[in-house]
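ugh ok so i messed up the first submission bc i forgot one of the chains. this is the corrected input, ALL of the components this time, i swear. 693 residues overall. if the numbers dont match what u have on ur side tell me asap before i send this to the collaborators (the ones from the other lab, u know who)
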Amino acid sequence: MPRSAEHICEFAGGLSESAGPLQTADAQAAAADERASANGNGAGPASAVAERPRTPAEERQGFPSISGSGGVDEYEGIQMQASQRTSGLLVRVRNMVKHFNTSKGVFKAVQGVDVDIEPSSICALLGPSGSGKTTLLRLIAGLEGVTDGRIYFDDLDATDLAVQDRQVGMVFQSYALFNHKTVAENVMFGLEVRKLDVDRRKRVEDLLELVQLTGLGDRYPRQLSGGQRQRVALARALASNPKLLLLDEPFGALDAVVRKQLRAGLKEIVQTVGVTTIIVTHDQEEAFDLADKVVIFNRGFIEQIGSPTEIIRRPATPFVMKFVGDTNDVPAASLLVRRSRFLTSKSRVMFRPSDIQLFTEFVESVDGHLVTGATVSERANLGWTVRYTLRFDDDVEVEYSVTREQADGRLGLDIGQRIYLYVKPEAMMGFEPEDIDSAPIL
Amino acid sequence: MLVLPISALLSKASLIPLAEFWARATEPVALSAYYVTFSMSVVAALINCFFGFILAWVLVKFDFPGKKWIDAAVDLPFALPTSVAGLTLATVYNDDGLIGCFLTKLGINVVFTRLGVAVAMVFVSFPFVVRTMQPVLQEMEREVEEAAWSLGASPWDTFVRVLLPPLLPPLLTGTALAFSRALGEFGSIVIVSSNLPFKDLIAPVLIFQSLEQYDFVGATVIGTVLLLISMVMMIGVNYLQSLGQKGRPKA
Ligand SMILES: Nc1ncnc2c1ncn2[C@@H]1O[C@H](COP(=O)(O)OP(=O)(O)OP(=O)(O)O)[C@@H](O)[C@H]1O
Ligand SMILES: [Mg+2]
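and heres the new structure output, hopefully the right one now
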């Protein structure tokens, strides 16, 4: 499995820490807390903005050892005073394994996952259906028991902590609102059961304002639209100031327009509140738009962890390459691959249609790239784009898309027309068919 | 279908002079019969409410071997002719019956007592609560429960404040149905009880006994009283239910 550079850095850091400047780190943190409480005033999500989140580096220095000091005793509960809240949690998942016992045998839903989620950042778990995203989220929430591995919240080993004690806010795909309670009662529920000493009515009002539902507190969930219910669920999850917000396909049941609106709203809200956020989605646009860090899952393994740009620009595995964009898939022995001088031990090669350099006039080579001849065999009209199928002389076919404007103008191709193209070898990736399979392994 | 027999009974009752009606309706035997009928029906309904809820919960929430059989067996009281039910109960709870022999040692007599009346009522009305609760429980999302936990609610808090409230209206409906079924039960009780006035005689059996003695007036009077009381109770239950629904949107 690919490992991001951060893992390695952190591992190296961890080694030096054990002997390292533990005292100083703690002292620093304490000083920071004092400063914070000196200028902090009152509760409320908005005042959290002023807080400078502790940087990941600072957080890590505060880690004496992975399994050491963190005991349940140190758990300090929900902090209602924003001034006392440092920031979101640093979540670290180590070697996470989850097996389900089913009637057909053991099903391996998560098979050894390592991931770090920096405080106050947004992390998206992305992957095909059944890849284990929800399972990982539920493990972090404490709704499933782990088969193996550990979960750390800051320096606390949270693996065996009960759901109730994890101070996470959770938003379910179905929203899971309490239908017999009004919107305000839904939001207040967490404050009541945790017996938090705050002006509950005021807090509920603040939260409803935050999610732009002011004035709807007396409605029942059934009287709201899907998008409004989703926001109630978000307000409810944020009510007791969790340090970690978990969202399982929060916009899954909504139409495209509402999704986009809510997505923008969500990003703003979680940044305002400063809560660490993990969002499960299989909408790539959503993941890339929202997240600071995207984790790509397949079959219970992590394929790649990285920033949206990194994942788009430098897919680490054939699976990611195929998953995050259009690809052409040709045999490694095909004319095109050989003429591109791309060497691979794998049986097939893929590249993006957008990496095709196409010429309508014959040329032998361009910038040292040998050009391969092909014939336009099909033209598919897809609205704003036009997709051509190009057939090489060895009967291998690839697809090539242009915008409608281009197709109407300079790049319009006719069926049967002879064209010439090359693909840079750097844009190619060799793979075996099983590398890109996403069917669960039983 | 429904109105005709009721109005027939009422019109017949209206022919009886009010003073005589009142005298017959408040005869000590009749009063005791009403009392036994209603008190035992209430007891039976409460028992059904409690155990029916638990059984429905277990059947929906847990998986265990033999679940299908238990689920099917719940309907048995509906399928069985009530006289057969009475016979079975009388056999089982008899002094030397399967359960009766244990209870006798403890000094508890079921057959030919009020307890027997209650047991018979519980038996014949058992499916109502289970069957009204099951679909509602099935519809309940597991995620609602999990959401409550993640908000910090203990399992008990979750049960009382999140799971139970939406279950109360159907529970009330099921219990009310069980109650009215228990109220009307005749076939099995006439076998299980000794049918002695002031002991374990219930109103429906009293009507039957009056008829046997060609006392049509008495039968009509008691029948009318039963009818009125049942109607008042049904209206009461409906009212309670509407209270439960109050403020809730009609969706
Ligand atoms: N309680 C369970 N018992 C048995 N198998 C389970 C259980 N929960 C999940 N699984 C299996 O684990 C696998 C991963 O499930 P998970 O819900 O994590 O997928 P996902 O990535 O969230 O998919 P989707 O995008 O469809 O929601 C699935 O194949 C699923 O069938
Ligand atoms: Mg899922």
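quick check: The mean pLDDT of chain B is 88. that seems consistent at least. Chain B has 13 helices and no strands.
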